[in-house]
Design brief:
86% helix
Length: 159
Amino acid sequence: MQKNTMAIVLIILGIIVLAFPYLGIVPVAVLSGIAVLFLGLGLIVSGYVDLQVSKVLAILEIVLGIIAFILGIGFIISPSLFSFIAALFIYIAGLFLIIIGIAGILTKVGGSRWNGTVPIIIGLIYLILGSLVSKPETFGILIGLWLLITGVLLFLQKE
């Protein structure tokens, strides 16, 4: 019974987020922003504590903390920034997979040229997904679809 209730809640949330895509991305962006903000504060404090131990490490921690702090505030204020950063990371991962696939084809790793095609295909899928995630509305729709599909699968799952 508890599983069915959770499934129905996920389905309802998925439908709501599909109707209003920003309702899906705003909570994700704000929660991620709060987490990154606290990470930045922790790094800044850790950097000041480490000043006596290693100045290079302390400066690195402080700089990374300031960057994380600014990104955290940016995620909270602008869900579009969150979408952009998420898409950027997906693009980079896709490019890495394509490069690995090409290297696998050229070097025949594993005795077959086909071993490199799988990373290339997945890398291309990542690039397509990155272009979808870069738009906040589309990112919200993807979150809504994920909620809806998860709810339906949970509802259909046998106990």
